[in-house]
Amino acid sequence: MKLLKKLALGSALALAMLASHAQAETIKIGLVVKSLGNGFFEAANKGAQEAAKELGDVEVIYTGPTSTTAEGQIEVINALIAQNVNAIAISANDPDAVVPALKKAAARGIKVISWDSAVAKDGRIMHLNPSSNELIGKMCLQLAANHLKDGKGDFAILSATTTSTNQNTWIEEMKKQLPNFPGLNLVTTVYGDDLSDKSYREAQGLLTSQPNVKVIVAPTTVGVLAASQAVADAKKIGDVYVTGLGLPSEMAGAIKSGATKEFAIWNPIDLGYSATQIAYRLVKGETDGAAGSEIAAGRMGKIKIGDNGEAAMADPFVYDAKNIDEFSKIF
Amino acid sequence: MSAVPEKRHIPDRLGTSVTRLFASWEALLVAVAAVIFIANALASPYFLNAWNLSDATFNFTEKAMVAFAMALLIIAGEIDLSVAAIIALASTAMGAAAQAGVGTPGLVAIGIGVGAGCGMINGILVAGLRLPSIVVTIGTMSLFRGIAYIVLGDKAYGGYPASFAYFGQGYVLWVFSFEFVLFAALAVLFAVLLHATNFGRRVYAIGNNEFAARFSGIHVERIKFTLFLLTGLMAGIAAVCLTSRLGSTRPSIAQGWELEIVTMVVLGGISILGGSGTIGGVVIAAFVMGLVTFGLGLLNVPGIVMSIFIGLLLITTITLPIIIRQFGHRKSA
């Protein structure tokens, strides 16, 4: 009967949780992330909560699966549909697989937008990119060049999974803009699956098998951190540099150790804030989110919706030894 | 999996106290399911809605289909950890076929065929070469999913014919989805196979004592091979349903399902040591897991907390009978 007791306890706990935020007539926005327990999305939630507070009549439901799977996200979407939320703002694990579930949501009057990692066009009203992919690709190359003498030398990319939509877009953009950086030479791309241990091993592999690689660019916070650790452990600080996209709080150590001189990221707080603002305006009917329209997003100003219903929020921001302490406290 | 603990009572059909414990196991599960159902209905105003409950069944129907076959395997003292990888490979094969213009009946045949083929490979390695199934299927798990990754890389297969969507998104009658009806039909089929046929009795006999079963004239290898084939086949059917529901294939499809399927089987009262358990238990366990995840989802309980919850359920399920059995032994000794 232990089992029964535990279940009863769990249900009671859940009941209490429900009672605490059961206020009627608020606009409910489901903020669906790739997986819970990721610093980036925790920060986005912070921004979403900020927007909710500012707008007043909004409740943000921050949710997502345990692991980064489409199946897990579909379960979460079904649960949100069942609760009659007014809007869903999702960072998708798979652009296509979540579409049938999101179409079902749209059919029941739920406004669906995607942010960070896009959903295929059929499944959402609009997509909010944190920045434009072009600018991110350029920024990654610029960072690599900044770490090399005269901007010339070999570099390698450490990505997340081979199926990650945004990672692949950025790598593509980097390859496209490579001719603008003469002297920069991309040697190889390896995949650490966004797992610390696998990324660490891949970085270690790069250090031994590619002695000419002087910079490792990791457009993922897990990868950039693991690679910095690998460089530090191999005592190659000053010889090989790591850069890319990372969270300031996690990267503070790498900046201090010197394995990374600078890295970039947009502000996830701003991203969660903007996504919530846009979802709210759509629910209120202030905009239809069509291509070419502009949506007021509070302190982020107006966000213009471009081709394919995609919008870019802002340029990526560079962090270095001068500003890391300030931002590492935020996210 | 074939390790037989010493001082082993043959649990199936023998020993009145043990029989009673297992007879009451399903009863306990039903009670748990009922409590969860009532608690969910009280906790969330959205729970008691036919369409929402119908949506909730998708959380477990595909996994449960594979769990039925897995239950038979585990009862026979074997295990198949490659089922999720088989789903991925079968789905990839269907995707490739869809790209080549194969129609819906062909796609279904390919999905089920690839699943059965993978099961056959496992069966040959375990039954034919007498290798331990846990090692073999950990190997084939990487092999099957590896092939899917090589074929697809970072790409996805889409463009399935519109009629193909029926298996994962269609409804037979009112809120009863095709998947749910298939799940129910397969439950009956497997219950009959395990509990009312000679084949089923032999599966129990092998799980209880393989040597004794062999000396009784049971073709142990043949039955084990059949069970692996059946498991692969069910994984193929699950792949058809899942692919149809998602409408696209990526190599990471059904990632981690093998553990959820084994959890479902063990939660259903199938002894991980083999030799005992019922299909009814697995059916109820499927509902318990589906209701728990959907109910907690409605309350926006994070998935991590849900995993803890399922983990606790599982640990309690495995330890409880063992503790009780040991307690009983000490008393009788």
TrEMBL record, chain A:
It is found in: Periplasm. Belongs to the bacterial solute-binding protein 2 family. Gene3D superfamilies: 3.40.50.2300. It comes from the Bacteria. One of its GO terms (cellular component) is outer membrane-bounded periplasmic space. Residues 1-24 form the signal peptide. This is Rhamnose ABC transporter substrate-binding protein. Its main location: periplasm. Residues 29-286 form the Periplasmic binding protein domain. The keyword Disulfide bond does not apply. GO terms for biological process: rhamnose transmembrane transport. The keyword Repressor does not apply. It holds the Pfam family Peripla_BP_4. Keywords: Signal. One of its GO terms (molecular function) is carbohydrate binding. CDD domains: PBP1_ABC_rhamnose. InterPro entries: Bact_Solute-Bind_Prot2, Peripla_BP_I, RhaS, SBP_2_dom.
Automatic annotation (TrEMBL), chain B:
Keywords: Cell inner membrane, Cell membrane, Membrane, Transmembrane, Transmembrane helix, Transport. It is a multi-pass membrane protein. The keyword Transport applies. InterPro entries: ABC_transp_permease. It is found in: Cell membrane. The keyword Nucleotide-binding does not apply. The chain crosses the membrane at residues 21-44, 64-90, 102-125, 131-152, 172-194, 225-247, 259-292, 304-324. One of its GO terms (cellular component) is plasma membrane. GO terms for molecular function: transmembrane transporter activity. The complex is composed of two ATP-binding proteins (LsrA), two transmembrane proteins (LsrC and LsrD) and a solute-binding protein (LsrB). This is Autoinducer 2 import system permease protein LsrD. It comes from Phyllobacterium sophorae.
